[in-house]
Amino acid sequence: MTLIATDAKHYRLLPFRFMRMNTGHHRDILLTSDTGEYMHVNDAQLRALSYFDVQASTPFYKDLLARHFIYEPGRHDPFPEMAAQYRSRKDFLFQGPALHLFVVTLRCNHTCQYCQVSRAPLGGAGHDLSEADAQAAVDRLFESNAPALTVEFQGGEPLLAFERVRQIVEWVVDRNVVEQRDIQFVITTTLHHLTEEILDFAEQNRIQFSTSLDGPAPLHNANRPTPSRDSYERTVKGIQWVRERLGHDAVSALTTLTSRSLEQPEAIIDEYVNQGFSSISLRPLSPYGFATKSAHRLDYPIERYLAFYKRALAYLLHVNQQGVYLSESYTSLLLKNILTPFSSGYVDLRSPAGAGTAALVYNYDGYVYPSDEARMLLEMGEDGLRLGTVQQPLSELLASPVMNALLASGVAEALPGCSDCALVPYCGADPVEHYARQGDPIGHRVFSSFCEKNMGLLKHLFGLLCDGDDNVQRVLLAWLNRRSYNDVRFPGYRG
Ligand code: SF4
Question: Pfam families from the xrefs (predicted)?
Fold first, then answer.
């Protein structure tokens, strides 16, 4: 009642969410708007805002007005500007799937216990994508209206089926003479099966390589066993070879974090510095494929991962302040969501969910999945998340019952738990992960490791953005803008 009576005074509230951050900071409450603007406020400020008691002459009032937490009826109309901001943040909705993953084979020479795709043995028959299905997948690719398309080859080990990779690249290049899309090719590989011929072809077609590097040799080789026990040595040799032939940035690397990795963040980061990478991805283990079968040995609680992440991030911030550029990729995506009017567009951090709308997976058996995680569920004996076969048109695949179910449970702003969470403008909905972990694509956020991870990381980053010293802020801005630390002279924006 009081709210309405005093509302008539000079301002009205726009929709916002708030959350106590428990950082011990005097401005411990995070306010966020639907359009992703944010402010750190104290209890008295939140109370004054809610009771229409903020004085118009104060800087706090002007901040609230500028960031669309309040407006002055009759004096200005905030809605056209907010609509434009909202449209920018959800801009990814205006185009079809841009990431197309071709699983050309399940065969692999590794026997990683946490392997997410349940590889087949090297000589295993019936585990390669057929020519007819590959051709149909290229048709599906061009049925998407996305102006920029990424064609990523996965496995198994895709270089074991290089002839199929070559065919697909040639078909795509030929067709693109007419289509005129911006095409990026990526091969996700251990680099163990590289040859001069493969590198020649990669050079001609500007193919990028993405490999797995879990850390220094003892850790990498323990995580990724091969019969010859030299996975690290062969991968590092492959990295050097690609760089010599195609340039330093033609290869990037990803880590998989096992329980034993969590004890050595500094050693993992030092390895990436020594190998000259500019980005590291510190992602937790997924609950799919073999990982779940070995979960009792390999899995770990997310709180352990969060402790690892905080220690790793502190070390990364220190390393960057010494003049080495090495960003953490998930942190950079979250920073983009927090500090810019745009979404990173990253599949797991989209709402509506990115599975199927942003990415499609053409499996070796001719079936199409909405994400890599969905096809990994297949290897666990679960085929419920199939969109259809590669022979069906894209419009039919995207109108499939599975796609409808994913979209119905994939709007974070409408999900229980997320709908009133202050972090929802920067987070995502991941119905596939919730289906995998909880048997329900909507899921329950209180028991959700997706939520625990994103909430932990976002709160930590908001803490650094609010409280971190100038040098920490400069590193975070350098990652956001992909500039060197020394180029970012001033710490920039604080909410
Ligand atoms: S998943 Fe968790 S952190 Fe993300 S918006 Fe939902 S409740 Fe918030």
Answer: Radical_SAM
